[in-house]
Amino acid sequence: MHFADGKIPEGYIRYTRRKVAVIGAGILLLVLLLVVSIAVGAVEIPVLSVVEVILARIYWMLGTAVETILGWVYGLLSSVFELPDVSFAGTLVEPVSGDSLYDRIIWKIRLPQALAAIVAGTGLAIAGAGMQSVLRNPLGSPFTLGISHAAAFGAAFSVIILGTGTMRSSGADAIAINNPYITTFFAFLFCMVATGIIIAISRIRASSPEVMVLAGVAIGSLFTAGTMFLQYFADDVQLAAVVFWTFGDVGRAGWNELIVMSVVVILAMIYFILKRWDYNAIDAGDETAKGLGVNVDRERIVGMLVASFVTAVVVAFLGVIGFVGLVCPHMVRRLIGDDHRYLIPGTCVCGALLLLASDTAARLILAPHILPVAILTAFMGAPIFLYLIIRGRS
Fold first, then answer.
1. 63-87 burial: b if 16+ Cβ within 10 Å, else e
2. Per-residue pLDDT, 171
3. Long-range contacts: 59-64, Cβ < 8 Å, 24+?
4. Number of C-alpha atoms within 13 angstroms, CB side, residue 297?
5. Minimal CA–CA distance to 389: which of 301, 326, 320, 314?
6. How many Cβ atoms sit within 10 Å of the Cβ of residue 164?
7. For residues 318 and 184, is the Cβ–Cβ distance under 8 A?
8. For residue range 13-68, what is the model confidence (pLDDT) as tens digits?
9. How many angstroms separate the CA atoms of 223 and 259, rounded?
10. Are 340 and 146 spatial neighbours (Cβ–Cβ below 8 Å)?
11. Which residues are within 8 A (CB) of 326 and not within 5 positions of it... i.e. 6 or more apart?
C-alpha cells in the first residue's frame, strides 16, 4: 500500500505493527506457559530449577556439537599434516549425567509432552486455517471434514482385525496398544484414503469448495459407521483399546515421534507461508484470483493434501484431537483480521497456546489422575466456537 510519492501511510504502519505485536505477545506467552507446564504436575518443580535444567542441557548439547565439529576438522587436518592424536571430548563441557530426579522428569516426561502439545497444536491449527482458506468455508477443519474419523477407523481396524490391542496385568493401566507403530500406520493410511476420496470427488465436480466440504462430511459419517461396525464385533479388550486410542493424548509422543511431527509441521508451515498471497487472492473470489494469475484448482487440491498430511501425522501419533483446527483460525481472525501474512503465523501460535494450555489443565484438574487432552479441547472448543458464532451474528 503506497501513496503516489512512494511512502507507506503511517496509519497502515500502525495497523500492521499491532498485528505483529499480537503475534509477538502470543510467542512470549507461549514460552512462559511452556516453563509453567513443565513445572506443574504430580511432582512440583520450581520454575528456576526448570530453567536451570533446560539451559544446562542445551549448553551441554551445543558444547558437544562444537567438540564434534572440532574433532572432525582436526581429524581432516591430521590426515594431511600428520598431527598428533588429540581428543576434544570433554574439553568444552562436562558430561551431563541426567540422573537427578528433576532432570529425568523434565527430559523424559514433561518436556517431550509439552513440546508435542506445541507441535500438534501448531499442525492442527495451520491445517484448519489452510482448509478454511482454500475452501473459503468457515467450517473447514480436519475434524469436520472427516479426516480424524478416518484415523479412528484405521486405529480400530488395526486393534480389532489385526489384534494390536492387549490386556496388561496392572490394574492401573489395564489396556494398552501392544504394537503402536502398526496402529499408527493404519491410522495414517486411512487419513490419506479419506483425503484421496474427497479430492477425487472434487475433481469430478471441478473442485468447488462446497463439493469438498460435503464430501468430507459424508466420508466422516462413512468412517464413523465403519468404526461402530468394527466395535460391534469386538471383545471387551479390543473395544477398550479402541476407545483408549481415540482419546487424543500428547503424552503418547516420545522424542522420536516428536521429531517426525516437527519436521512435517515445519514443512507445512513453510508451504502455507509461501502461499499467503495466493490465499489472499482466493479470499477475494475464484474469478478474481484467476485474474491475478492464481491456479485456484491446483492451489485448492495441493493445500488440502498438505493440510491432510499434517493432520494424518499428528492424529496417527496422538489420537483424535478435535476443535483446535476449527476454533484457532476464527479466534485469530477476530484479533488480527484475514490477511494471511499474519493469519498463518498467528494461527500457529494460537494453536500451540491452546493445546499446551489444555494439556497443562488436563494434568491439574484431577491430579494425580491425568485427563486426555482431547476431552478438554472439546469442552473448551465447543463453547468458544459457539461464542464466536453468536458474536459474529450480533
1. bbeebeeeeeeeeeeeeeeeeeeee
2. 40
3. 59/93, 60/93, 60/94, 60/95, 60/96, 63/92, 63/93, 64/93
4. 9
5. 326
6. 23
7. no
8. 787 888 899 999 999 999 999 999 998 877 788 888 888 888 887 877 787 777 77
9. 29
10. no
11. 128, 139, 141, 143, 144, 381, 385
As a whole number of angstroms, the distance between CA 349 and CA 27 comes to: 6
In this structure, what C-alpha cell is assigned to residue 157? 481396524
Give the pLDDT mean for 214-237: 86
- Rounded to 5 degrees, what are φ and ψ at 320? -80, 120
Q: pLDDT tens, 80-97?
A: 666 666 665 555 555 555
Given CA atoms 217, 222, 228, 231 in this order, what sign does their dihedral have? negative
Q: Which amino acid is at 106?
A: I
DSSP class per residue in 149-176: HHHHHHHHHHHHTS--EEE-S-STT-EE
pTM, to two decimals: 0.84
Structure-derived torsion over alpha carbons of residues 302, 264, 380, 50, reported in degrees to the nearest 10: -160
Rounded Cα distance between 243 and 238, Å, is: 9
- Kindly report the length of the chain: 394
Classify 45 in phi/psi space as left (phi over 0), alpha (psi -120 to 50) or beta: beta
Give the separation between CA 110 and CA 305, rounded to whole angstroms.
32
Write down the number of H helices and E strands in the chain.
15, 2
| Mean pLDDT score of the chain | 80
For residue 141, the SS3 value is coil
**Cα(250)–Cα(352) distance, rounded to whole angstroms?**
12
Strand residue runs (E) in the chain: 165-167, 175-177
Residues 6+ apart with CB under 8 A from 207: 199, 297, 300, 301
Q: How are beta strands 175-177 and 165-167 bridged, if at all? A: antiparallel
Angle between helices 296-318 and 180-204 (to 10 degrees): 160
